[in-house]
Amino acid sequence: MYTVEFNYARHRIRYVPLIPVGLKSKDEWVEVWAYVDSGAFYTIFDDKVAELLGIELYKGRKMLAVVGDGSFIPFYLHKLQIRLGEDEFAMEVGFSSKLGVGFNLLGMNLFDRYKVTFDNKAKKVIFERE
Amino acid sequence: MKRSQKWITENFEALVTRYGGKYIAVVGEEVVAVALTPKEAMEKAKRVAKAEDISLLKVPSEEELICIL
User: Fold this and answer.
1) CB-based contact B58 A6, cutoff 8 Å
2) Hey, are the CB atoms on B69 and A46 less than 8 Å from each other?
């Protein structure tokens, strides 16, 4: 069993599940923070993160995501190495220039590997796996 | 846990107030670079720290936080 947990960040009266993940570029790991979003199917980062990692955005698989107002935004899926706590694995990560929210997002395709608990009473998010 | 992780979580509100809408690079308990892109923030931060010690955060603005929550 492996467990890693992250305390929520606080903003005024609200608490935000914002956590660091490692993303592998060509020759090094980069730690980038993202919002754990159970309402997002895919993990999607700002396209500027793709630039940082040396990824050619438009070589990825083009997908569309529905956003809050019902419109669609394009994003491009790339398979890359990701690190959560001490876990390292390959996962599809989307990048978009139209993300339009203040955070990078960790979506449900990350959750497939873990039992994820949003412990709002303790103000932490917990990832567990066998 | 890296020292920067605890510090970012505990100081998030102040970071939003000061750096909302920008990317910041944090090493330990210090913001070492501020930029509009993560690449620029990382390049600035690498002048003072090793890559593995740098944490990059896209800091939401106050307005974005209200909208997402």
Assistant:
1) no
2) no
Instruction: Find the domain containing B60 and state its range.
Output: 3-68
**Cβ separation of B9 and A18 shorter than 8 Å?**
yes
The total of structural domains in chain B comes to: 1
Nearest CA-CA distance, residue A62 and chain B, Å? 23
Crossing angle of helices B3-10 and B12-19, in 10° steps, is 70
Greatest alpha-carbon pair distance for chain B in Å reads: 36
ipTM, 2 dp:
0.93
Domain A2-129: CATH architecture, name and number where available: Beta Barrel (2.40)
Residue of chain A minimizing CA distance to B15:
A11
Helical H segments across A25-111, by residue range? 47-53, 108-111
Nearest CA in chain A to B19: A102
pLDDT in tens, chain A (130 residues): 999 999 999 988 889 999 999 999 888 999 999 999 998 889 999 999 999 999 999 999 999 988 777 788 899 999 999 999 999 999 999 999 998 788 999 999 999 999 999 999 999 999 999 8
- Say whether pTM exceeds 0.90: yes
